[in-house]
Amino acid sequence: MSVVTCSRGAALAIAADVRAGRRSAVSVVTGVIADMEIRDTRFNSVTRILGAAAVAQAEEVDRAVAAGKDPGPLAGVPFGVKDLFDVRGEVTTAGSIVLRDNLPATADATVVARLRAAGAVPVATLNMDEFAYGFSTENAHSGTTRNPHDPARLAGGSSGGSAASVAAGMLPFTLGSDTNGSIRVPSSLCGVWGLKPTYGQMPLKGVYPFVASLDVVGPMASTVEDLQAVYSIMAGAPPLALPDVGDVRVARLGGWFASNISPELTAGIDAVMAHLGRDRVIELPEVARARASAFLISAAEGGNLHLPRLRRRAMQYDPATRGRLMAGAMLPAATFVQAQRFRRWFREQVHAALAQADVFIAPATVGVAPRIDQPTITLDGKTVSARANLGIFTQPISLTGLPVLAAPLAGDGLPLGIQLIGRPGGEDRLFAVAGELQRAGLARCQPLDAGYARKDSGC
């Protein structure tokens, strides 16, 4: 069986070729657009192709190269954004027809502007759960995004279009948002690298909000190196100096994070811990309550944000989103306050546990992506909603604001992913561990069967 490699279309490789004049930015961008127009009919990851604007920026990059000017570290690299990032000249819909009549954005979101200044070219907006409220990227307005590894399965959400377009090899990197796992879940189910940075580290100007006290934006990519480079540019910071991985203390999360996961995922985590030569297991307290608190805070903040519009235009919302938001808007204030009090306590407990380790390793989901026609899974012997429980391992961690790097485990089957969880501002240690796992062949962007992707695609 032929497979595609994950490094051939990597962002840094493209930039190196463009900067050296081996490829033109226009040829890269037009090739990517042509590819998306043909192949995304299978996956439905793209909502709009930014054709003319993208080609115009690529021409600027080529003129800079021809004039001997520095075109930027990501010169000519095409990327896509979840459709809640402002892109100048485009209407930001946040996956909803409710916003489609808004005026186009007059400026890029801050992180998009930073990437554009580095030479990267936005070429598409990408599918998502409406207003980022969901884990499956099943959108009543723009359809369901399908997993490139098996189009009968979910891509995960709410940044499903962002993960699927990287997994399909159409784009070398994309931007997503993560409130309760919306970067980590689709990254894991689609077999790509993803990063939820430390809460508050990335500017959110020009990003449509969901839950202000939890929202974070970050990149997805086909290699660790690309992920790290894009992260630094988004953060407006110099490239990270990484510690020696041997100096990073790693522990495995047990208890809640060791239950209900597939045997293949357990074996993958076993292999990671064995390679790193670590055997410490740490169990966090009251994880189920942490997950419930994250759910309540999200519902309350999201419902409050949308309540004025719901009173006027409720029937224009995706029915599933509408129901969740209305339920959240009706939560008693006391419930929200109690959830916030618990959040403070839980965060203190997790920070105390981080005195014993620099990086925690935990599963990202219970197993592989559910089938689109699969409504339920079994947890603790009970039949539960498959979609509602895709965030069972990501939601509790969101409550802490910690940085998390989603790493795709290497394997021949459907993708599986793990979370590398760090201290606040500890992204350097996450990248050190992720890079070691990639070098060791234990984690990598999952290749596709050639029947689903071109042989020269990026992932």
From TrEMBL:
One of its GO terms (molecular function) is biuret amidohydrolase activity. It holds the Pfam family Amidase. InterPro entries: Amidase, Amidase_dom, AS_sf, Carboxybiuret_hydro_AtzE. It is an enzyme of class 3 (hydrolase). Residues 31-430 form the Amidase domain. Its EC number is 3.5.1.84. Keywords: Hydrolase. NCBIfam families: amido_AtzE, PRK09201.1. PANTHER family: GLUTAMYL-TRNA(GLN) AMIDOTRANSFERASE (PTHR11895:SF172), TRANSAMIDASE (PTHR11895). This is Biuret hydrolase. It comes from Komagataeibacter saccharivorans. The lineage of its organism: Bacteria, Pseudomonadati, Pseudomonadota, Alphaproteobacteria, Acetobacterales. The gene is atzE_1.
